[in-house]
Amino acid sequence: MAEIKITHETDPIGATITGLDLGSDMSEGEFKTVRETVNARAVVVIRDQVALPSERLVTFARLFGTPQVNVRADANNEANPEVFWVSNVHENGKPLGSHDAGRYWHSDLCYLEKPSDVTLLHALEVPATDGVSYGATEFISATAAYDSLSDDLKEKIAGVTARNGYRYMWNRKAHEFGKRPVLSDAELKKFPEDAVHPIVRTHPRTGRKCLYVCDGYTHAIDGWAEDESRETLDALFAHLLDPGFRYRHEWRVGDLLIWDNCAVQHKANFDYPPELRRRMQRCTIEGDVPF
């Protein structure tokens, strides 16, 4: 067995693990190492998992908790519905999975009562040409973002909740990018109603405070006038974009990237032409009700 090696990024988040084979059963000690690294660094890549079928991804994901089945059923793996396809690929004349996932800064499944705890995203095909890879995923440390807020703003948003909407996101994305159909109000009702979550979450394992508003889904602060709600949300969204909170992951085929959805937000880059294939398989793990 290869020696497990962990390397931390210089950014406030991010780490790389080598020396693991997720195609084989993992020992308790090995998983403890992975779990502790995710807790400490929030975004962790396990390299060189080239031959990792969907069923093995689900098996590994279950070590973290209960995998979620995405509400967008047409983008799920038929054989393993806990796996959600993220790609720009067509199969049999139809899009394979979601072609516009990750356009906005977000935390996975924040529109549910119990959002995702961790996400596992495995790279099967990475857009590349002339030795250069495209489609990097960027991350923001929600803990660093909260810590750097002014005392006045921390006091203003303490105990305040906001609405996170899948229905809101759907048509916004449909209008802006044209990769999904615009849905009527009646059609949108098949998706979950808004989830109301605290603007400031407490991390269930580390106890740290995390800023939990996402540009892609958070659209109103409960009980506030519309103008004040919009102004405050826009200020928080802008604050999250500070370069000092960032980590950028440059993908390689076989990367399994794991991130903590309470501690970070993320966004994909669409800096590649459609003829360059991108195909990834994702599992998300159900978390707790935010508090």
Descriptive key words:
Double-stranded beta-helix, alpha+beta, 23% helix, 19 strands, three-stranded antiparallel β-sheet
Structure description:
With 291 residues, the protein is an alpha+beta fold. It has two domains: 5-136 and 250-286, Double-stranded beta-helix; 141-240, Double-stranded beta-helix. Helix content is 23%, strand content 27%. The chain contains seven helices and 19 strands. The strands form six sheets. The protein has a seven-stranded mixed β-sheet with strand order 1-2-3-17-7-19-4, covered by helices on one side. It has a three-stranded antiparallel β-sheet with strand order 16-10-18. A three-stranded antiparallel β-sheet has the order 12-11-15. Strand 2 (15-18), helix 1 and strand 3 (43-46) form a beta-alpha-beta unit. The longest helix is centred in the C-terminal third of the chain and has 15 residues, at 226-240. 38% of the residues are buried. The mean pLDDT is 95.
